[in-house]
Amino acid sequence: MSLALLPRNICVAFLVAYRAVISPLYGDVCRYYPSCSSYALQAIQQHGVIRGIWMGSRRILRCHPWAPGGVDDIPEPRRRLHTTRAGFVLAHEEH
């Protein structure tokens, strides 16, 4: 794993733990699909820590009782990164 990906993977670990421990206590309350925590996880995985947190924060602000909800996928990244089954981001191999 690349040292440059460490901050991203720390955020991923935090969100994976949140989704395993805290999120089930709330139940299925998110008005959007994927859920806000899943959206933030995907955004950080594919867009990096700063942009991912920005995108996740904007999504959480949009998720309120009067929001229309619906499908709201993350924007497609310029370059898709590979993730492990646990969700950690792997560095691209140079060919």
From TrEMBL:
<keyword id="KW-0472">Membrane</keyword>
<dbReference type="InterPro" id="IPR002696">
    <property type="entry name" value="Membr_insert_effic_factor_YidD"/>
</dbReference>
<dbReference type="Pfam" id="PF01809">
    <property type="entry name" value="YidD"/>
</dbReference>
<comment type="similarity">
    <text>Belongs to the UPF0161 family.</text>
</comment>
<protein>
    <recommendedName>
        <fullName>Putative membrane protein insertion efficiency factor</fullName>
    </recommendedName>
</protein>
<keyword id="KW-1003">Cell membrane</keyword>
<comment type="function">
    <text>Could be involved in insertion of integral membrane proteins into the membrane.</text>
</comment>
